[in-house]
Amino acid sequence: MIREITAADTYPLRHQVLWPEQSLDFVKVPEDDAGFHFGYFVENELVSVISLFIDTGHHARFRKFATHPHYQRKGIGTALLQAVFEEAVLQKATQIWCDARLEAAPFYQRFGMYQEGAIFYKGPIPYVKMLRIL
Length: 134
Hints:
By secondary structure, this protein is α+β, with helices and mostly antiparallel strands. It has 3 helices and 7 strands. It has helices at 7-18, 76-90, 105-109; strands at residues 2-5, 36-42, 45-54, 59-67, 95-101, 114-122, 125-133.
């Protein structure tokens, strides 16, 4: 089941999945208070999170998309990402983008997202900007 959650609800899973070697504060973003945060629950356990931000130019960005390793490759991330695309449209966004880990780019391509620009790094991890017109 997908439902809206608070930014603080996302922090433990963001930390565990994305940046476990960093402090908990590292997974917080300055815009968290202005975002829409969604979680996927299995039997009341939060197993996947994603955060959506809409700017004044009708561009949406999702960040900190994380699924617990035991629940990956089960369609949960797909359902959560589809829900975020739907919310972005409801919020009148005309495009949506993310900074994706390079290894995850093929996943986003399945949703009509395409790479824009060159590979860049956050620490040792290669990333690409992925974009989709809504």
